[in-house]
Design brief:
This protein is mostly beta strands. The chain is built from four helices and 18 strands. The strands form four sheets. Strands 2, 3, 5, 6, 7, 10, 11 and 14 form an eight-stranded mixed sheet that branches. It has a five-stranded antiparallel sheet with strand order 8-9-4-12-13, with no helix packed on it. Strands 15-16-17 form a three-stranded antiparallel sheet, covered by helices on one side. A hairpin with a 5-residue loop joins strand 2 and strand 3. 23% of the residues are buried.
Length: 266
């Protein structure tokens, strides 16, 4: 037992590692590790600004990717339940107006355990979209919008953090949609249908364009099983390589042999 515990601790390089014990029963898989403090993986925000072919109108999309076990509130959340999410946009001379942001799917409604409030939660990926009207004659290729999300990001069963401390600023440069690009999108269900299967599945999460832009091209995975151990260990990074300052997800899975099991990560 001691050898297994020491080996796990050295491999994972963390302060505390669950030990494998000789008891019958099921084992739990360690969850993905969320970010710690500002700049972690609690939330990642991106934005996409597009215009019609004539350049008079367009739309602004703001996408939030929540980390594992994390959620944020809707724009309509009552304050007795939590802080509502706000999308703040800096003024731009080339923009006449930006309409109301609408989410790509409704929030999950839950009853608060502590108050009579209804919680309106978003988990996973959510994209808010608003119509945009541009100034006549504006130089479209020079338009760039900046802003930020304001509100809370909370962990299930844990604490809530202010978005302003989590790096939720975003910038979007205008992209002009033309007829050919629209045709290309429409033809995705034709000869390229087989190639777009993964895209269609990802689209169920919402905010497809922004999600794909943030998705890693490769995943780095490694497995290890110490000699005379009663469990195998697999580690997986959400990127192929990392450097100081990078953000990524680290998932560690421990698979004990029967009849051993491992306790859940606390």
């Amino acid at each position: 037992m001691i050898r297994v515990f020491v080996t796990l601790m050295m491999l994972l390089n963390v302060c505390c590692v669950s030990s494998v014990v000789a008891q019958s029963g099921q084992f739990s898989v360690l969850p993905e590790f969320g970010g710690i403090g500002a700049g972690g993986n609690e939330i990642q925000v991106s934005a996409n600004l597009t215009s019609d072919a004539d350049g008079s109108n367009g739309k602004l999309q703001v996408t939030a990717v929540l980390g594992p076990r994390h959620y944020t509130y809707s724009q309509n959340q009552k304050r007795e339940g939590g802080l509502p999410t706000k999308i703040n946009i800096q003024r731009h001379d080339a923009i006449v107006s930006i309409g109301k942001f609408q989410p790509d799917h409704p929030p999950k409604m839950e009853q608060s355990e502590y108050t009579d409030a209804t919680l309106e939660k978003f988990t996973g990926v959510v994209t808010w979209t608003a119509p945009v009207q541009f100034v006549d004659g504006a130089k479209l290729d020079a338009i760039q919008i900046s802003g930020n999300l304001d509100g809370q990001v909370c962990e299930e069963g844990g604490v809530c953090l202010q978005m302003k401390n989590l790096g939720t600023d975003f910038t979007a440069r205008l992209k002009i949609n033309d007829a050919s690009s629209s045709s290309n999108v429409a033809n995705a269900t034709g000869s390229n249908a087989a190639d777009s299967t993964a895209t269609n599945e990802a689209n169920l999460l919402g905010g497809l364009d922004n999600l794909l832009a943030m998705a890693p091209a490769k995943v780095s995975k490694a497995a290890f099983r110490p000699k005379r151990a009663h469990a195998g260990i697999e580690g997986q990074l959400s990127v192929a390589s990392v450097k100081p300052g990078d953000k990524f997800h680290l998932q560690i899975t421990v698979a004990p042999d029967e009849p051993y099991h491992i306790y859940d990560y606390a």
